[in-house]
Design brief:
Largest sheet: 8 strands, parallel, barrel
Bound molecules: orotidine-5'-monophosphate
Shape: globular
Radius of gyration: 18 Å
Strand order of the largest sheet: 1-2-3-4-5-8-9-10
Number of helices: 14
Structural class: alpha/beta
CATH topology: TIM Barrel
Helix content: 40-55%
Order of helices and strands: HEHHEHHEHEHEHEEHEHHEHEHH
CATH superfamily: Aldolase class I
Strand content: 15-25%
Number of domains: 1
CATH class: Alpha Beta
Protein backbone atom coordinates (compact mmCIF):
# COMPACT_ATOMS: atom_id res chain seq x y z
CA UNK A 1 0.00 0.00 0.00
CA UNK A 2 1.23 3.55 -0.75
CA UNK A 3 2.30 5.56 2.33
CA UNK A 4 -0.56 7.25 4.19
CA UNK A 5 0.82 10.75 3.43
CA UNK A 6 0.60 10.03 -0.30
CA UNK A 7 -2.91 8.57 -0.04
CA UNK A 8 -4.05 11.54 2.03
CA UNK A 9 -2.60 14.01 -0.46
CA UNK A 10 -4.45 12.27 -3.32
CA UNK A 11 -7.73 12.32 -1.39
CA UNK A 12 -7.31 16.03 -0.57
CA UNK A 13 -6.49 16.83 -4.21
CA UNK A 14 -9.74 15.14 -5.20
CA UNK A 15 -12.11 16.38 -2.48
CA UNK A 16 -10.46 19.35 -0.78
CA UNK A 17 -8.96 19.40 2.73
CA UNK A 18 -12.13 19.10 4.85
CA UNK A 19 -12.22 16.29 7.43
CA UNK A 20 -15.67 15.47 8.83
CA UNK A 21 -16.16 13.76 12.18
CA UNK A 22 -18.74 11.13 13.11
CA UNK A 23 -19.52 12.07 16.72
CA UNK A 24 -22.79 10.43 17.80
CA UNK A 25 -23.58 12.81 20.69
CA UNK A 26 -26.79 11.95 22.62
CA UNK A 27 -28.18 15.41 21.70
CA UNK A 28 -27.52 14.82 18.00
CA UNK A 29 -29.24 11.42 18.08
CA UNK A 30 -32.27 13.06 19.70
CA UNK A 31 -32.28 15.88 17.14
CA UNK A 32 -32.30 13.18 14.42
CA UNK A 33 -35.38 11.64 16.12
CA UNK A 34 -33.33 8.61 17.13
CA UNK A 35 -33.23 6.98 20.57
CA UNK A 36 -29.92 7.26 22.38
CA UNK A 37 -29.44 3.50 22.21
CA UNK A 38 -27.57 0.98 20.08
CA UNK A 39 -30.14 1.04 17.25
CA UNK A 40 -30.00 4.83 17.19
CA UNK A 41 -26.20 4.71 17.13
CA UNK A 42 -26.19 2.30 14.17
CA UNK A 43 -28.73 4.35 12.19
CA UNK A 44 -26.73 7.52 12.86
CA UNK A 45 -23.40 6.00 11.83
CA UNK A 46 -24.85 4.41 8.68
CA UNK A 47 -26.42 7.68 7.53
CA UNK A 48 -23.17 9.56 8.20
CA UNK A 49 -21.15 7.03 6.18
CA UNK A 50 -23.67 7.19 3.34
CA UNK A 51 -23.51 11.01 3.31
CA UNK A 52 -19.75 11.45 3.67
CA UNK A 53 -18.08 8.52 1.90
CA UNK A 54 -16.94 9.35 -1.60
CA UNK A 55 -17.49 13.06 -0.86
CA UNK A 56 -14.78 14.04 1.63
CA UNK A 57 -11.05 13.35 1.84
CA UNK A 58 -11.14 11.80 5.29
CA UNK A 59 -13.78 10.84 7.86
CA UNK A 60 -13.02 10.82 11.59
CA UNK A 61 -15.17 8.60 13.82
CA UNK A 62 -14.82 9.58 17.49
CA UNK A 63 -14.37 6.33 19.43
CA UNK A 64 -15.75 7.54 22.79
CA UNK A 65 -19.26 8.04 21.40
CA UNK A 66 -19.28 4.40 20.26
CA UNK A 67 -17.52 2.99 23.35
CA UNK A 68 -20.22 4.44 25.61
CA UNK A 69 -22.48 1.58 24.42
CA UNK A 70 -19.92 -1.08 25.39
CA UNK A 71 -19.12 -3.99 23.09
CA UNK A 72 -22.25 -3.37 20.96
CA UNK A 73 -21.05 0.19 20.30
CA UNK A 74 -17.55 -1.02 19.44
CA UNK A 75 -19.13 -3.41 16.94
CA UNK A 76 -20.88 -0.43 15.28
CA UNK A 77 -17.52 1.37 15.19
CA UNK A 78 -15.92 -1.67 13.52
CA UNK A 79 -18.72 -1.75 10.95
CA UNK A 80 -18.33 2.01 10.37
CA UNK A 81 -14.60 1.62 9.69
CA UNK A 82 -15.27 -1.35 7.40
CA UNK A 83 -17.93 0.60 5.46
CA UNK A 84 -15.58 3.56 4.94
CA UNK A 85 -12.90 1.16 3.68
CA UNK A 86 -15.39 -0.51 1.36
CA UNK A 87 -16.33 2.90 -0.07
CA UNK A 88 -12.66 3.83 -0.55
CA UNK A 89 -12.81 6.75 1.91
CA UNK A 90 -9.91 7.33 4.30
CA UNK A 91 -10.73 6.79 7.98
CA UNK A 92 -9.04 8.58 10.86
CA UNK A 93 -10.00 6.98 14.15
CA UNK A 94 -10.05 9.56 16.94
CA UNK A 95 -9.03 7.68 20.11
CA UNK A 96 -6.26 9.91 21.55
CA UNK A 97 -4.58 6.88 23.14
CA UNK A 98 -1.08 6.86 24.60
CA UNK A 99 0.65 4.25 26.76
CA UNK A 100 3.99 2.58 27.34
CA UNK A 101 5.91 -0.45 26.13
CA UNK A 102 3.93 -3.62 25.54
CA UNK A 103 0.63 -1.86 26.28
CA UNK A 104 1.29 0.70 23.56
CA UNK A 105 2.22 -2.16 21.25
CA UNK A 106 -1.23 -3.67 21.90
CA UNK A 107 -2.98 -0.34 21.15
CA UNK A 108 -0.91 -0.02 17.99
CA UNK A 109 -1.96 -3.52 16.88
CA UNK A 110 -5.59 -2.70 17.66
CA UNK A 111 -5.74 0.47 15.53
CA UNK A 112 -2.99 0.02 12.94
CA UNK A 113 -2.55 -3.73 12.51
CA UNK A 114 -3.76 -5.28 9.27
CA UNK A 115 -5.77 -8.05 10.97
CA UNK A 116 -7.57 -5.91 13.55
CA UNK A 117 -11.31 -5.21 13.19
CA UNK A 118 -10.64 -1.70 14.56
CA UNK A 119 -7.86 -0.86 12.09
CA UNK A 120 -8.19 2.58 10.49
CA UNK A 121 -6.10 4.41 7.90
CA UNK A 122 -4.84 6.68 10.68
CA UNK A 123 -5.29 7.29 14.38
CA UNK A 124 -4.94 10.15 16.89
CA UNK A 125 -2.47 9.53 19.73
CA UNK A 126 -1.43 11.44 22.85
CA UNK A 127 2.32 11.94 23.45
CA UNK A 128 2.08 12.91 27.12
CA UNK A 129 3.70 9.67 28.34
CA UNK A 130 6.66 10.67 26.15
CA UNK A 131 6.89 11.06 22.38
CA UNK A 132 8.98 7.89 22.05
CA UNK A 133 6.48 5.87 24.11
CA UNK A 134 4.34 5.86 20.94
CA UNK A 135 7.14 4.19 18.93
CA UNK A 136 5.24 0.86 18.41
CA UNK A 137 2.51 2.85 16.64
CA UNK A 138 4.98 4.79 14.46
CA UNK A 139 6.67 1.55 13.40
CA UNK A 140 3.44 -0.32 12.68
CA UNK A 141 1.96 2.64 10.78
CA UNK A 142 5.08 2.87 8.60
CA UNK A 143 5.01 -0.88 7.99
CA UNK A 144 1.37 -0.92 6.84
CA UNK A 145 1.03 2.40 5.00
CA UNK A 146 -1.02 3.94 7.80
CA UNK A 147 -0.75 7.29 9.59
CA UNK A 148 -0.55 8.76 13.10
CA UNK A 149 -1.66 12.23 14.21
CA UNK A 150 0.06 13.26 17.45
CA UNK A 151 -1.57 15.84 19.73
CA UNK A 152 0.43 19.08 19.75
CA UNK A 153 -1.77 22.11 20.53
CA UNK A 154 -5.30 20.94 21.20
CA UNK A 155 -8.41 23.09 20.80
CA UNK A 156 -9.52 23.04 24.45
CA UNK A 157 -8.58 26.09 26.56
CA UNK A 158 -7.31 24.06 29.54
CA UNK A 159 -4.55 22.52 27.35
CA UNK A 160 -2.57 25.74 27.37
CA UNK A 161 -0.73 25.41 30.70
CA UNK A 162 0.73 22.04 29.66
CA UNK A 163 1.23 22.41 25.91
CA UNK A 164 2.61 25.99 25.90
CA UNK A 165 5.04 25.20 28.74
CA UNK A 166 8.71 25.63 27.89
CA UNK A 167 10.82 22.49 28.15
CA UNK A 168 14.53 23.13 27.59
CA UNK A 169 14.72 25.43 24.55
CA UNK A 170 11.14 25.27 23.26
CA UNK A 171 7.47 24.69 24.04
CA UNK A 172 6.14 21.16 24.54
CA UNK A 173 3.91 21.66 21.50
CA UNK A 174 6.98 22.69 19.49
CA UNK A 175 8.90 19.61 20.61
CA UNK A 176 6.04 17.44 19.33
CA UNK A 177 6.08 19.20 15.93
CA UNK A 178 9.86 18.79 15.68
CA UNK A 179 9.68 15.10 16.59
CA UNK A 180 6.88 14.45 14.07
CA UNK A 181 9.06 16.18 11.46
CA UNK A 182 11.81 13.69 12.40
CA UNK A 183 9.45 10.75 11.73
CA UNK A 184 8.59 12.19 8.31
CA UNK A 185 12.29 12.70 7.52
CA UNK A 186 12.98 9.07 8.51
CA UNK A 187 10.12 7.92 6.29
CA UNK A 188 11.88 9.59 3.35
CA UNK A 189 10.31 9.87 -0.10
CA UNK A 190 9.61 13.07 -1.96
CA UNK A 191 5.88 13.39 -1.19
CA UNK A 192 4.67 16.82 -0.09
CA UNK A 193 3.27 15.34 3.15
CA UNK A 194 4.69 12.66 5.37
CA UNK A 195 2.52 9.97 6.96
CA UNK A 196 2.91 11.48 10.44
CA UNK A 197 0.74 14.45 11.33
CA UNK A 198 -0.02 16.69 14.26
CA UNK A 199 -3.26 17.80 15.89
CA UNK A 200 -3.48 21.56 16.29
CA UNK A 201 -6.88 22.98 17.17
CA UNK A 202 -8.29 25.57 14.77
CA UNK A 203 -9.16 27.58 17.89
CA UNK A 204 -5.61 28.22 19.17
CA UNK A 205 -5.62 31.84 17.97
CA UNK A 206 -2.16 33.38 17.67
CA UNK A 207 -0.42 30.60 19.65
CA UNK A 208 1.53 29.22 16.65
CA UNK A 209 2.89 32.69 15.84
CA UNK A 210 3.53 33.55 19.48
CA UNK A 211 5.40 30.25 20.12
CA UNK A 212 7.25 30.64 16.77
CA UNK A 213 5.95 27.33 15.45
CA UNK A 214 4.92 28.22 11.89
CA UNK A 215 8.37 27.62 10.39
CA UNK A 216 8.96 24.29 12.20
CA UNK A 217 5.47 23.20 11.16
CA UNK A 218 6.18 23.88 7.48
CA UNK A 219 9.55 22.11 7.79
CA UNK A 220 7.92 19.05 9.41
CA UNK A 221 5.86 18.15 6.27
CA UNK A 222 3.17 17.10 8.74
CA UNK A 223 -0.47 17.15 7.71
CA UNK A 224 -2.33 19.11 10.41
CA UNK A 225 -5.64 17.88 11.79
CA UNK A 226 -7.34 21.11 12.86
CA UNK A 227 -10.59 20.46 14.76
CA UNK A 228 -12.66 23.38 15.98
CA UNK A 229 -14.41 24.63 12.87
CA UNK A 230 -18.09 25.34 13.43
CA UNK A 231 -19.29 24.34 16.91
CA UNK A 232 -16.06 25.52 18.62
CA UNK A 233 -16.06 28.81 16.73
CA UNK A 234 -13.26 28.64 14.14
CA UNK A 235 -13.94 29.79 10.56
CA UNK A 236 -12.02 29.53 7.29
CA UNK A 237 -10.81 33.09 7.81
CA UNK A 238 -9.60 32.46 11.37
CA UNK A 239 -7.87 29.25 10.18
CA UNK A 240 -5.97 31.27 7.56
CA UNK A 241 -4.74 33.69 10.26
CA UNK A 242 -4.00 30.96 12.81
CA UNK A 243 -1.86 28.82 10.48
CA UNK A 244 -0.21 31.50 8.33
CA UNK A 245 2.32 29.98 5.90
CA UNK A 246 1.42 26.46 7.11
CA UNK A 247 -2.24 26.75 6.03
CA UNK A 248 -1.68 24.50 3.00
CA UNK A 249 -1.02 21.57 5.39
CA UNK A 250 -4.27 22.00 7.30
CA UNK A 251 -7.23 19.61 7.31
CA UNK A 252 -10.01 21.81 8.74
CA UNK A 253 -12.14 19.47 10.81
CA UNK A 254 -15.73 19.70 11.92
CA UNK A 255 -18.28 17.36 13.46
CA UNK A 256 -21.41 18.88 15.03
CA UNK A 257 -21.72 21.76 12.54
CA UNK A 258 -22.22 19.27 9.69
CA UNK A 259 -23.94 16.47 11.65
CA UNK A 260 -26.65 18.83 12.90
CA UNK A 261 -27.95 18.97 9.29
CA UNK A 262 -29.13 15.32 9.60
CA UNK A 263 -30.95 12.98 9.54
CA UNK A 264 -31.51 13.67 5.84
CA UNK A 265 -28.55 12.29 3.87
CA UNK A 266 -29.16 14.95 1.21
CA UNK A 267 -28.98 17.74 3.82
CA UNK A 268 -25.84 16.23 5.33
CA UNK A 269 -24.25 16.23 1.86
CA UNK A 270 -25.31 19.85 1.33
CA UNK A 271 -23.71 20.78 4.68
CA UNK A 272 -20.49 19.03 3.61
CA UNK A 273 -20.52 20.88 0.28
CA UNK A 274 -21.01 24.21 2.05
CA UNK A 275 -18.14 23.51 4.49
CA UNK A 276 -15.94 22.41 1.57
CA UNK A 277 -16.71 25.65 -0.27
CA UNK A 278 -15.89 27.63 2.88
CA UNK A 279 -12.40 26.09 3.15
CA UNK A 280 -11.63 25.70 -0.57
CA UNK A 281 -9.60 28.92 -0.63
CA UNK A 282 -7.16 27.58 2.00
CA UNK A 283 -5.37 25.33 -0.51
CA UNK A 284 -2.07 26.68 -1.88
O1 LIG B 1 -8.18 14.95 18.01
C1 LIG B 1 -9.25 15.53 17.76
O2 LIG B 1 -9.95 15.18 16.83
C2 LIG B 1 -9.57 16.74 18.54
C3 LIG B 1 -8.49 17.47 19.00
C4 LIG B 1 -8.70 18.75 19.53
O3 LIG B 1 -7.77 19.47 19.86
N1 LIG B 1 -9.98 19.21 19.64
C5 LIG B 1 -11.07 18.48 19.23
O4 LIG B 1 -12.19 18.98 19.33
N2 LIG B 1 -10.88 17.22 18.74
C6 LIG B 1 -12.04 16.37 18.35
O5 LIG B 1 -12.68 16.97 17.22
C7 LIG B 1 -14.09 16.84 17.32
C8 LIG B 1 -14.69 18.24 17.35
O6 LIG B 1 -16.08 18.18 17.21
P1 LIG B 1 -16.97 19.49 16.97
O7 LIG B 1 -16.60 20.47 18.03
O8 LIG B 1 -18.37 18.98 17.11
O9 LIG B 1 -16.67 19.99 15.57
C9 LIG B 1 -14.36 16.02 18.58
O10 LIG B 1 -14.42 14.65 18.20
C10 LIG B 1 -13.13 16.25 19.43
O11 LIG B 1 -12.82 15.16 20.29
Amino acid sequence: MAPFGVRLQEAVDRHGPLCVGIDPHPELLRSWDLCDDIRGLRAFAEAAVEAFSGNVAVVKPQSAFFERFGSDGVEVLEDTLAALKEEGTLSLLDVKRGDIGSTMQAYATAYLGDCSPLAADAVTLSPYLGFESLRPAYDLAAQHGRGVFVLSLTSNPEARSLQHAQAERQSIAGAVIESVGGLNADEGGDARWGSFGVVIGATVGDALHHLRLIEPLVASRAPVLAPGMGAQGATAESIRRTFGDAVGQVLPTTSRAVLSAGPSVRRLRDAVLQAQEDVAGLRP
